[in-house]
Structure formats: C-alpha cells, structure tokens
Specification:
Number of strands: 0
Shape: elongated
Helix content: over 70%
Strand content: under 5%
Order of helices and strands: HHHHHHHHHHHHHHHHHH
Number of helices: 18
Largest sheet: none
Radius of gyration: 26 Å
Structural class: mainly alpha
Distance between the termini: 26 Å
Oligomer: single chain
Length: 476
Amino acid sequence: MATTSKAAFNSTRAWELAGLAFLWPCLQSSGFYPLSVVPSIASMDAATVAFFHLCYSIELIVAFAVMIALRRRLEALFRSSRTIPVLGGFLGAVGHALLIACEAGSSSSRILIMAGMPLVATFEAAFVLLWGCRLSSDGGGRAVLGIAISFAASQLGLIVVCSGFLPYAPFLLVCAVCTGMCAAFSARGASLSRTFDLSSMRQLPWRMAALMMLLVYFCVVYVRLRIPEFSGDASMSSKLFASVLCLCTFSAVVLCLRRFADPESGLVVVFIILASVYMVGLLMVALFPDDGSVLARRVLIAGEHCVEVFIWMTFAYAAARKRLSAVLAFGILGILLVALPWMLSFDFRYLVPIAESVVSSDALNSVVTVALCVTALGTIAYLSVYALQIARKASEDAHSSHNEAAKRAFANVGLTERELEVGVLVYRGYSAKRIAEMLYVSEPTVKSYTSRVYRKIGVHSKQELIGFVDGRDLFM
C-alpha cells in the first residue's frame, strides 16, 4: 500500500514538472508573443504589431484580474479538476492555430489575430495560476526544486527545437496541448486551507521580488531600445544560444538546491548564481554597445529569463510556507512579470513618440543607457546584501530551532546543565574539538560529558543521538 501511494505521488509529481516545462516556452518565447507565431510577422508594420500586442497585453491583464476576483472558487478547481486543464489546453491550441493560419496583409489576418489572442491570453493566465496552485501544494522546498527542474527540462526541449528538429510555432501549439494534458493527469485531491484576503499578500517577499522585477524590466526595455528597427522574432541560433546558457545555469541551480537542506539558504546561493549570469550579460552589453552585439544581448536575455524563474521560486516558496492563496499570489505575479514588462518595452517602444526620440538621439540614448546600467548595478548590489542578511537570519533561526528541539528531547532524562549544553552542541553537529573551544574546556572533558549523555539517553553514537532527538521532536 505504501509503495503504491509513493508511486502514485511520484507519478503525479512527474506530470506536474512536465506540465510546467511545457508552459515555460510560451511564457518566454518572444517580446511580442503570441504574435511571434504569425508566419509573416516580420513583414508587418512595427506600429501595427505593437497595437495588436497592446490589445493582447490588456486581455492578459483582464484575464488575470478576473481569475483573481474568482480565486475562492478557482483555487480548488485548479488543484483537482481534470476538465478545466483539458479545456484550457484546447483553447490555447486553437488560439495558436488561428495565429499560425494568418497571412500578413490578407483581409482575414486581422480577424484571425483578434480571434486568436483572447484564447491564448485565457490559456496563458489559467496555466500560470494552475501550476502555481499545484506546485505550492507541496512544501516550500519541493516547490522551489520542482520549478527549477521544470525550467531546466524546458530549455532542453527548446535546444532540440531550435536545432532545427521541429518548427518553432507548431511547437508552441503542441506545448499548449501538452501542458493541459499533464495538468489533467496530475490532478490532486482537496486543497489545504488557504488565506484569500488581499492583506495576506503582505507576507510575500516583496522587497526582493520588486528589485528582481526591476532587473527584468531593465533587460526588456534596454534590449528593445538597442534594436534599431522591428525585424520579426529572434533567429533560431540566438534562441539556441540562450537556451543552452539557461540549461547550464539551472543545472547548477538544481544541484545546489538538492545539496541544501534549508531552502532559504539554497535560494540565497541560487540568487548568487543567477546574479552572476545577469552581471556577465550586463558587462558584455556595456563592453559591446554596438547594435551588432547580438551575443551580448542574448546573454543578458538568458540572465533575465533565469531571474524570472527565481521570482517564481520565491513566490511559490512563500505561498507554500504561509498557506497563501496561490491564485492571488501568482495572479499578481502574472500581471507584474508576464504582462507588463513586454507592454512597457515592445508596445510603447513602437507606439509612443518619445520612445522613438530616445532611440534616434545618440546623446539621449547614451544617457538612458548609463542610467539603466547604474540602476541595474545598484539593484544587484543591494540584493546581494539583502540575500546575505536572509542567509544569516535563516542560519540563526535554524540554530535556534535545533537548540529548542534538543532541549525538549533531553528534558526528562536527568542531564546536568553542562551535559545538556554538550548534548545540544553534539546534536548540532559540532566535533569534540570545536565544542571544547566553545566551552573553554579540554577535549577529553567534552568526550567524558558526551559519554555520560549517551549513557543516560541510551545511545552509542552521534548519529543515534541525532535520531533520538529527531524522533522525540517528531513525536512531540
């Protein structure tokens, strides 16, 4: 029975990670997704594409807002329903198919675009919230690791596609179908109780999230300003390079998260890794400012994609740990991270006259570039200090928790004050030499106290002592 339950759980988990992996290409496909799947999009006027994409951005924000308003009903449905995911995947596939069928300049193209965009917007908003709900049902550490694994898997799939084995636009259509099917296979039971009030969102890590989002906004705005004119989507070779870099980065992230028992410490190390990749991209853009420096821009874009995933990880961790409404948390995240950045960068770039003035003026362009770079560097510096503060606090909290657990376990075994002190330090993993230095006694004295502790609680080694404390703490 236990084996069957474990197998079912592992199967559910695998479907969840696969489903989110299929969603990532849609979330990070292009600066003007879903119009990027229109075959002849490069031949369309930039202002026309920007107008259509602005309409899509508004539709996406409205979809998130409606689902946030209905969060009490949708929370349980997103976790347990099998019908809604299939329907959502179908809507996404139909929307992509309508856009792929467009021919730029034909009389029916505008009708197909206007019909397809709402379907894709509904699909995208629904699955951002659905996978947020599913993954945050696990513990915070499992949610964080699951998001990292799913993103690494998605980049592996993109490498295959960008290498020329599959056409890109139909691949996104297939992703819409597959993420819906995976969600149907990974449906869960009743959800845990959640906090649905808007005031509960104060518990999210807004300080770090806001600054990380600033890096995302910097990248999408800066890169779009550096592109002299609209020429369609990025080349497959550019996407391939970014996917390889993201895969390498998140392979290291997954290994890092598996190594740390404490998720908060793991997230701090992950931030350092991702900030380093982003800094490399920023430095390359600064060193190669010419418009032809495609490689530098792709490194920065890869860093920005990784930062987006990190923000997902922090929101999922907070929602899981504090029992927050995932629909509410990820709905706000969707508006701030999925819809607004590209609206501000792509749509305003080609629709607002002042944006064109910035691009056409070398002096003004240089001032904006320096201001953006200084802002990004300042943000990274502040985030680094803030991350170290979080790591220090997490370490202190862990030590305090270990002390309390050991003291509870040793409460009724007749230890003296000094024996209790030594027992707590042994439980925390310190060696006899280190304990002797901390208590200002000799190492043989520490070993004598340790032997007495072992005898009184009925164990024979440090590992047995740790098992004794953990077992008693779990029982209590």
